[in-house]
Design a protein that fits this description.
Radius of gyration: 14 Å
Mean pLDDT: 88
Largest sheet: 4 strands, parallel
Number of domains: 1
Structural class: alpha/beta
CATH superfamily: Response regulator
Shape: globular
Strand content: 5-15%
CATH topology: Rossmann fold
């Protein structure tokens, strides 16, 4: 089974959307893939707009919670994707121990629901592209 790791600073928004969407779509396609998300400085709870935006498109949100990034998570993952390093490099998780893909998305924290949905939809597109590329390997 391939492990995918999505990382952002607080693990309360973008990386949670990516984890939930990836696992949802991979399971629906019977792909032997699993995603996890984590943050370098995890929040106490998920962004409520993020939870609502995921749920409104039929993706399960139970079990999602901010998690602390560990070296084991990175080492056990075949692909590590950060969400926003190109947007805010000062807050970017430092993962210099391996090659990392960055999706360069804005943090939905403090954004309204429409902006959160836009971030969610972009993450969904990127997850779908990632799954398609993994399905052809």
């Amino acid at each position: 089974m391939k492990n995918i790791l999505f990382v952002c600073v607080h693990n309360s928004g973008r990386s949670q959307i990516a984890e939930a969407a990836f696992n949802h779509f991979a399971q629906n396609r019977n792909m032997e893939l699993v995603a996890l998300s984590a943050g370098t400085n995890p929040a106490q709870r998920l962004n409520t707009n993020v939870i609502e935006s995921i749920a409104e498109i039929g993706i399960q949100t139970s079990g999602l919670a901010p998690k602390q990034l560990t070296n084991d998570m990175v080492e056990q993952s075949e692909i590590v994707i950060t969400l926003g390093c190109n947007v805010d490099s000062n807050q970017c998780p430092s993962l210099n121990i391996r090659e990392v893909i960055d999706w360069g998305l804005p943090d939905p924290s403090g954004m309204g629901m429409d902006a959160t949905r836009n971030v969610r939809d972009k993450i969904i597109q990127l997850v779908e592209c990632l799954l398609a590329s993994l399905n052809h390997k």
